[in-house]
Amino acid sequence: MKKNNCVNCATCGFAELCSAFLFEYLDPLFIRDLETKKKIPRGGYLYRVGDKVDALYALRRGIAKVYDSRGQLMGVVLPGQVMGVEELHTGVCRQDIQAATDVEVCMLRSQHFYQMSQLMPGFTDYILRVLSRSARNKQEFISVLTKSDTLQKVQYFLQLLSDTYKEYGFEYRIIELPLSKKELAELLGISISTLSRTLESLSAKGIVVMPNKKEITILDPTTQ
């Protein structure tokens, strides 16, 4: 397993689409609407509340953070995951997506989705799977936030990170935290002191080991 840095095309959220219409069929309409390896520096924005959104974005490299219109941290995007799904029906962004590190994204503009669905066999099915995968990721994260027990909430979140890294082909036993402790506490709706105590408790139970502030080793692969 490689470090949690840059996703392979074979495991990216756009994998099926690119495999079929970029690498196999070399479809000119798909190629025209696809932009790869677009760079955004740390602190920059992929898009902001009120911006027009006319594309799906697959995070290729780095970490992005999601904020609501009030500046509340709402989530984190990992390499391979797709952004912009919720905004397709309105065309206007309701969230700020900020680069937590230097990032690269691949963009697939939506202006020709209908034409491609008519001309390219399987295109609609591929898009539906992209949307379904994104919806599943969101639902799994929501299920973490609804846990009333703090220890379970933190443990489930760490397990979800591990599972996500594994799904996209990264090292998943020794994981890099994508957020600072302050940001992680904000995201989970708990205080920093509560988060620290909970991590200490998980360590004492032999579930995790924290060799430093940014890495966690998952010792117990199952969520209890």
TrEMBL record:
<keyword id="KW-0004">4Fe-4S</keyword>
<dbReference type="InterPro" id="IPR036390">
    <property type="entry name" value="WH_DNA-bd_sf"/>
</dbReference>
<protein>
    <submittedName>
        <fullName>Crp/Fnr family transcriptional regulator</fullName>
    </submittedName>
</protein>
<keyword id="KW-0804">Transcription</keyword>
<dbReference type="InterPro" id="IPR036388">
    <property type="entry name" value="WH-like_DNA-bd_sf"/>
</dbReference>
<keyword id="KW-0479">Metal-binding</keyword>
<dbReference type="InterPro" id="IPR018490">
    <property type="entry name" value="cNMP-bd_dom_sf"/>
</dbReference>
<keyword id="KW-0411">Iron-sulfur</keyword>
<dbReference type="InterPro" id="IPR012318">
    <property type="entry name" value="HTH_CRP"/>
</dbReference>
<feature type="domain" description="HTH crp-type">
    <location>
        <begin position="148"/>
        <end position="222"/>
    </location>
</feature>
<keyword id="KW-0238">DNA-binding</keyword>
<dbReference type="InterPro" id="IPR014710">
    <property type="entry name" value="RmlC-like_jellyroll"/>
</dbReference>
<dbReference type="Pfam" id="PF13545">
    <property type="entry name" value="HTH_Crp_2"/>
</dbReference>
<dbReference type="InterPro" id="IPR000595">
    <property type="entry name" value="cNMP-bd_dom"/>
</dbReference>
<keyword id="KW-0805">Transcription regulation</keyword>
<feature type="domain" description="Cyclic nucleotide-binding">
    <location>
        <begin position="13"/>
        <end position="101"/>
    </location>
</feature>
<comment type="function">
    <text>Global transcription factor that controls the expression of over 100 target genes in response to anoxia. It facilitates the adaptation to anaerobic growth conditions by regulating the expression of gene products that are involved in anaerobic energy metabolism. When the terminal electron acceptor, O(2), is no longer available, it represses the synthesis of enzymes involved in aerobic respiration and increases the synthesis of enzymes required for anaerobic respiration.</text>
</comment>
<dbReference type="InterPro" id="IPR050397">
    <property type="entry name" value="Env_Response_Regulators"/>
</dbReference>
<dbReference type="Pfam" id="PF00027">
    <property type="entry name" value="cNMP_binding"/>
</dbReference>
<keyword id="KW-0408">Iron</keyword>
